[in-house]
Amino acid sequence: MHRINNMKERRAALLGQLDKYTSRSQAEQRLMTSDEIADFDRLIGKLEQLNDEITAAQSDADQDAARVFGQRGSSSDIVLLRPTDSLRERICGRASARPDEELSIGRYVKGLVTGNWQGAERELLAKTQGSVSNYTHLVPTPLSTSIIDRARGLSAVTQAGALTVPMDSSTLKMARITGDPSFGWKAENAAAAAGDMTFDAVTFKAQVLIGLVKLSMEVFEDAIGLEEVIRNAFAQSIALELDRAALRGSGVEPEPKGIAETANIQTIDMGENGAALTNYDKFGQAVRMCADYNFTATAAIMAPRTAGVLDALKDTTGQPLRPPASWEGLKKFSTTQIPTNLTKGTSNVASEAYVGDFSRLAFGMRTELMIEVSREASDAAGSAFRNLQVWIRVYTRADVQVLQPKAFVLIDGVL
């Protein structure tokens, strides 16, 4: 550990020297001279070599610790983030940098694509600390966490109440209650009729979540709204897959297990061949079923088609159907990640809806985001080179755990 700390101190000194060059040129509003660029590149080379040595040494140290202490991660130091909590603030602090020192994902990706880091010297410094190879880069933590926060904001499941658990290791074990304590009246000189609270645990296992974003070269050359375009593209891709995995994940490695495949959830069957919704009764029934197990249903998630059907319900006079209090008390979300072409008996246009207390579901999230950029990649659908595009592959690691199955009701067979 002393050796690793010593290398980190040397890296900090190198970063300080590099920062002097960029700060000086920015303060004097000029480009670096040829001598400065040569010295800058020499320091960058030393920094990249030192990063490789630190990574290798840290890996060895982690393996030694795992052998001595066993699996990392305990429920005693777990952080649970609500939908409104910021992962970036939790990891980086509220004031991680002055506004003029904030890193830009737009400048960062543009530098990776074009190789031109003019005006993006701070992003270049951050890149040198996170380069895994010439093609793969570890996105700086402030940028990674801000993208993940944006993804959380776009995720229907998170907005419905799902928690986020930051993971600093590949696995994390979290205790959960499986049985509430019971109280009873005790007669004098008689045994107490009371029961203990019972527990078990769920284990988050970080799985690779990968996405591909294709952007035109015009976006990078014109750089109009580049920051928002890139951040939203990354975040939307992550959010959609998090929603799909949380609701319908198969649980077959490496895919997490979602609500639909979790044992002991509650189910409302719309019939052998499914049925259309003509009122809000099934949702009221789902709210009551959650309450039967002392959970308060807070949200409903459904396909956009289902949301449209419910919005168009009419009473016998042709007026909009007035929903009951149970429906009014739910937050409503729709996502295209719930299919409308499921097979239910003779029907092949069935769908699902989910009702429950979504704070009883959690995403385990690593804070690292890896990025790969190519102007030559291709697949069966096309080619980045032929289409004058940039293909960006982004991946992080995450997991989903249903903390309390009885807190959720699946309405199955919605036509």
Description:
With 415 residues, the protein is α+β, with helices and mostly antiparallel strands. It has helices at 2-27, 34-69, 87-92, 105-114, 121-130, 141-154, 156-159, 217-222, 226-248, 281-292, 304-311, 325-328, and strands at residues 136-138, 163-167, 171-179, 198-205, 207-216, 266-269, 299-302, 331-334, 342-344, 347-356, 361-366, 370-374, 378-379, 382-383, 389-402, 408-414. The strands form 4 sheets. Strands 1, 2, 5, 11, 12 and 15 form a 6-stranded mixed β-sheet that branches. Strands 6, 7, 8, 9, 10 and 16 form a 6-stranded mixed β-sheet that branches. A two-stranded antiparallel ribbon has the order 3-4. Strand 13 and strand 14 form a beta hairpin. The longest helix has 36 residues, at 34-69.
